């Protein structure tokens, strides 16, 4: 008999958190103050709202467990074995501690990611899911994105302090010690499967020019995946990548050298001070999410305009969204964009004196206006296949020949396996989205934003909320973006006012009751703090567990003695 979590009654592992909810917003509706049925609708939705909050937190914890499978290599080991194996056989194959593997397998069975034959005690990953669980596959972006939760949690308490009026203005990038590794791993999936194969062909006339030979600049190239992919595909063209991170540049240089790409060069530069000899050098400039993080975007854009040839093209790929919260209410990626921006993009940018602090939700309208202010003409804005970015295709304003509007294909092909693998990748992507929201939710509870809004018992502007709590308005605005698009906070778009409906208050205020949703919202950032330590504990030659003096902060979130977190503490 083969079972998964729907029939595994004896599998208790972490059930309270690993609820497989493909749409944690089911049953929720946006309530506007002008709605005559305001009270009645919220009274009906109050019970669903509590479940909504629990599902958001569960998504964050789900991502941690999936992320452990990738970080430790357990998914790779199980797929390489190719057939059902016992827990001990899996542990032996990967040189893991059997007790940790057992606890993790229990969670994966509960989450319907791993299948089990209880009569034989064997486990396997269904082949339909393999493409979604391979970090280098075309569907691999979602599993790579699960690592965003522990990566961002490294700076959770620093961001919390930044919200306060008397706190630091931002968070230095050094506090996100694994950011370069995370962003490179996630972005490399798109660079390796979409950049050359589909995206470049959407830029009018570019493919022919690349094949004949031009100079290309890769902005904020990170660890060089895009630079290397393009250089390999177009040997007659010359590719220059630059980044401000010396560590990322060193990795990129090693990658280029290893691939023996003589037409690629990676250097460390500040975008606001590019080499003088680069003036007019590049016929094509490529930037993927390299603009909204700039502390001083205008000088940076002016430099890009200087180094672009008069008839050159620049592709600026930025998160696909609008520049106002009201316009982003129906943007599917809105919740995670605002949350990621709150937890990383904005605080890192604001850590630099005089920063604009654009954030990830810079938006099409503001981006277009700034690009044109800095000497570019945005000739088209199109969707990007395989990504949540928009493509702002630009030329210099003084270009003699303007491009016609580019087009993108709506048909996605897969080289990685059966089409039915995609639903799981989509489910995993949704889990990541709500996992990111769980961090913003925890921040609101921890810093007291919900308390301030509830105590005033009326719709308030962002500025009023910030003043009442002695918070920085810029941080409050980004947090409200995540909460409104997640249908946790309501908004009157005509007056830019925000409030927590009265019937939903009990789910967001701390009551000292362990079963209350508000009592578990900070479990994701707290347990994330142990993520990488736990990954090391899996290895036979790794530590046995977490030191006992650090375990007290986790204990209130351990609801099942068989969960991986409970095992982690008991073996310390």
TrEMBL record:
This is Uncharacterized protein LOC110974220 isoform X1. The lineage of its organism: Eukaryota, Metazoa, Echinodermata, Eleutherozoa, Asterozoa. Residues 211-329 form the Methyltransferase domain. Residues 63-128, 437-509 form the S-adenosylmethionine-dependent methyltransferase Rv2258c-like winged HTH domain. PANTHER family: METHYLTRANSFERASE TYPE 11, S-ADENOSYLMETHIONINE-DEPENDENT METHYLTRANSFERASE RV2258C. It comes from Acanthaster planci. InterPro entries: Methyltranfer_dom, SAM-binding_MTase, SAM-dependent_MTases_sf, WH-like_DNA-bd_sf, WHD_Rv2258c. CDD domains: AdoMet_MTases.
């Amino acid at each position: 008999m083969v079972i998964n979590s729907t029939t595994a009654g004896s599998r208790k592992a972490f059930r309270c958190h690993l609820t497989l909810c493909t749409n944690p917003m089911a049953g929720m509706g946006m309530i506007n103050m002008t709605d005559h049925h305001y009270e009645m609708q919220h009274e009906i939705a109050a019970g669903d709202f509590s479940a909504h909050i629990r599902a958001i937190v569960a998504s964050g914890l789900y991502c941690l467990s999936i992320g452990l499978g990738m970080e430790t290599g357990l998914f790779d080991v199980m797929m390489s074995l190719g057939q059902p194996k016992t827990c001990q056989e899996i542990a032996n194959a990967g040189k893991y501690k059997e007790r940790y593997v057992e606890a993790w397998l229990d969670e994966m069975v509960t989450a319907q990611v791993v299948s089990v034959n209880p009569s034989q005690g064997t486990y396997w990953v269904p082949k339909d899911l393999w493409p979604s669980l391979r970090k280098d596959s075309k569907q691999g972006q979602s599993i790579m994105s699960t690592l965003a939760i522990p990566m961002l949690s490294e700076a959770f308490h620093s961001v919390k302090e930044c919200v306060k009026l008397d706190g630091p203005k931002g968070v230095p990038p050094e506090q996100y010690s694994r950011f370069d590794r995370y962003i490179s791993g996630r972005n490399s999936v798109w660079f390796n499967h979409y950049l050359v194969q589909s995206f470049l062909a959407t830029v009018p006339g570019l493919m022919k020019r690349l094949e004949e030979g031009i100079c290309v600049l890769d902005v904020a190239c990170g660890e060089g995946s895009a630079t290397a992919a393009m250089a390999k595909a177009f040997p007659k063209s010359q590719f220059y990548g630059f980044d401000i991170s010396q560590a990322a540049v060193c990795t990129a240089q090693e990658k280029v050298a290893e691939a023996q790409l003589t037409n690629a060069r990676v250097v460390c530069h500040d975008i606001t001070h590019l080499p003088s000899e680069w003036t007019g050098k590049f016929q094509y400039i490529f930037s993927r999410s390299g603009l909204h993080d700039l502390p001083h975007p205008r000088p940076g854009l002016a430099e890009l305009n200087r180094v672009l040839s008069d008839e050159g093209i620049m592709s600026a790929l930025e998160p696909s969204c609008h520049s106002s919260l009201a316009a982003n209410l129906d943007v599917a990626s809105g919740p995670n964009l605002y949350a990621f921006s709150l937890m990383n993009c904005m605080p890192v940018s604001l850590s630099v004196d005089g920063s604009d602090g654009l954030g990830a939700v810079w938006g099409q309208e503001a981006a277009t206006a700034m690009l044109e202010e800095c000497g570019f003409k945005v000739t088209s804005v199109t969707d990007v296949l395989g990504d949540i970015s928009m493509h702002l295709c630009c030329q210099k304003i003084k270009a003699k020949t303007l491009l016609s509007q580019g087009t993108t294909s709506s048909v996605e092909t897969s080289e990685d396996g059966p089409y039915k693998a995609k639903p799981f990748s989509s489910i995993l992507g949704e889990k990541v989205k709500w996992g990111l929201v769980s961090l913003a939710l925890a921040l609101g509870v921890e810093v007291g934003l919900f308390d301030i809004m509830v105590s005033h018992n009326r719709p308030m502007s962002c500025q009023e909320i910030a003043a009442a709590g002695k918070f920085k308005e810029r941080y409050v605005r980004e947090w409200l973006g995540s909460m409104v698009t997640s249908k946790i906070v309501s908004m009157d778009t005509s007056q830019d006012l925000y409030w927590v409906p009265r019937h939903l208050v009990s789910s967001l205020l701390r009551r000292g009751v362990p079963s209350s949703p508000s009592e578990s919202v900070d479990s994701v950032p707290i347990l994330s703090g142990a993520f990488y330590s736990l990954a090391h504990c899996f290895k036979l030659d790794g530590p046995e567990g977490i030191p006992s003096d650090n375990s007290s902060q986790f204990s209130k979130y351990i609801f099942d003695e068989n969960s991986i977190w409970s095992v982690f503490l008991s073996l310390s």
